[in-house]
Inverse folding.
């Protein structure tokens, strides 16, 4: 298992804003952060429907990795898996031969049984299968190509059906989004079988349809615990050093630019807790374009255990402006309140007319307390990605009709029509006791157009602005950057 200490890993926060820690949000269409079982099943079906050419002698690949991927896909479609067996190396060509074989190729070595009553005699799956694909590399006009020089698809064992082949070790994988969820549930004390059941319910699939088994979950948790134990001290030291370097960078920036502002707090152990900063030109831009502010707090660092926030604006040409940044140690309302206090202080005491944020309940409370005269808006683009997680499973085949009606409600002209149609929608789909419907209704004045119309939003609710913010954030979250270089990137 790879150590976490060498990389600064940022992920999107996936805790549901309903306040229930057991509830989990999977974002629609974001394969980098949440590769769902549904998409994997769709890929598998598409692959099986597509005619795949059987490998043959003379078949050409650009690389040995391409060849292995092709052979693996062919194997999965035909009921077996493959492994890399041998490679040969030369000083001139490097690796120039590759042997790929069926996972049941060869025989297990005969081992002397250890003495003892509780020896576990596990039978090997290897049975001398001769199915294989051998490749050789040739360089033609400076371009490397890999040719199939031997191929056999003759097996001496039974091939597996689709529902069996997916459970072979080569095809079982726990995606990153599932890893995070598993660790959270494990930390909360859930046993392995309960964790698996929760994942099945959240994904809306039948039992046994996850792309991994209970023992994979158990092994993952055990291995991750070992990594945490081995690297915890090193990670804590790195975190403290990097945070102090960030504070020194803020002090140096203040000396170089009088307009630069920063503030921080320390905990009971005199260690840095929160830190926020803003730039001189950001304050100047705020005087002209600070009527509307978008406060994004959608990313957190696993490595540093900190939540990142940034205040954005938009200029008269529609270009994004960054007003300031903050790193918080937790997601408590008092932490969000401190961040907002610092921002107003940086901006010389002037609060924005409108602030746009996500659905986070702690952040909503902080805005209500610290910016009482500011209109709080939650853009529909912050809500839409969560709707599928909330309602696709309980509504099943009715979800498409519900989604169409919900999207139409967002654009209703007046509040009377909104209230009427909302009640009709809740009744029609039987959502009267649903906690997420209750959440959306409680904050309707922040997202429904009939309640936000008349407030200046400066085109910040458009898809283009939303994407520009997301693109900026993804651009600064380099996994190899410490906090100091992260500060310089911003």
């Amino acid at each position: 298992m790879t150590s976490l200490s060498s990389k600064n890993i940022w992920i999107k926060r996936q805790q549901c804003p309903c306040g229930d820690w057991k509830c989990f949000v999977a974002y629609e269409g974001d394969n980098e952060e949440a590769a769902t079982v549904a998409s994997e099943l769709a890929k598998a079906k598409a692959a099986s429907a597509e005619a795949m050419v059987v490998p043959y002698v003379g078949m050409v690949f650009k690389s040995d990795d391409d060849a292995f991927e092709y052979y693996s896909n062919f194997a999965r479609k035909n009921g077996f898996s493959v492994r890399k067996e041998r490679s040969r190396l030369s000083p001139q060509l490097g690796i120039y031969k590759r042997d790929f074989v069926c996972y049941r190729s060869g025989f297990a070595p005969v081992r002397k049984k250890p003495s003892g009553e509780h020896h576990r005699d596990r039978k090997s799956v290897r049975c001398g299968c001769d199915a294989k694909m051998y490749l050789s590399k040739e360089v033609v006009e400076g371009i490397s190509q890999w040719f199939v020089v031997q191929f056999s698809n003759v097996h001496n064992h039974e091939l597996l059906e689709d529902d069996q082949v997916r459970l072979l070790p080569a095809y079982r994988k726990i995606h990153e989004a599932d890893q995070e969820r598993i660790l959270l549930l494990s930390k909360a004390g859930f046993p392995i079988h309960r964790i698996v059941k929760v994942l099945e319910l959240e994904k809306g699939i039948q039992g046994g349809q996850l792309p991994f088994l209970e023992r994979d979950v158990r092994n993952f948790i055990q291995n991750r615990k070992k990594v945490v134990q081995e690297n915890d001290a090193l990670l804590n030291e790195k975190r403290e050093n990097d945070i102090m370097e960030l504070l020194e960078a803020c002090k140096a920036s203040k000396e170089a630019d009088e307009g630069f502002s920063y503030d921080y707090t320390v905990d009971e152990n005199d260690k840095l807790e929160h830190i926020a900063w803003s730039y001189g030109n950001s304050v100047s831009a705020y005087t002209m374009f600070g009527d509307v502010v978008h406060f994004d707090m959608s990313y957190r660092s696993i490595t540093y255990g900190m939540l990142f926030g940034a205040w954005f604006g938009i200029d008269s040409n529609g270009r994004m402006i960054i007003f300031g940044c903050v790193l918080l140690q937790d997601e408590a309302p008092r932490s969000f309140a401190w961040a907002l206090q610092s921002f107003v202080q940086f901006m010389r005491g002037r609060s924005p007319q409108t602030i746009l944020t996500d659905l986070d309940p702690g952040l909503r409370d902080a805005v209500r307390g610290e910016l009482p005269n500011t209109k709080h808006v939650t853009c529909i683009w912050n809500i839409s990605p969560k709707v599928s997680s909330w309602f696709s499973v309980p509504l099943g085949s009715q979800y498409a009709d519900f989604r169409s009606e919900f999207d139409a409600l967002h654009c209703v002209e007046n509040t009377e029509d909104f209230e009427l149609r909302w009640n009709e929608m809740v009744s029609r789909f039987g959502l009267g006791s649903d906690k997420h419907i209750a959440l959306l209704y409680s904050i309707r004045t922040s997202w429904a157009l009939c309640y936000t119309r008349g407030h200046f939003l400066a085109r910040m609710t458009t898809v283009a602005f939303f994407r520009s913010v997301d693109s900026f954030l993804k651009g600064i979250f380099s996994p190899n950057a410490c906090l100091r270089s992260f500060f310089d990137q911003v």
Q: What stands out?
A: Residues 36-105+125-172 form one domain. The first helix runs from residue 37 to 49.
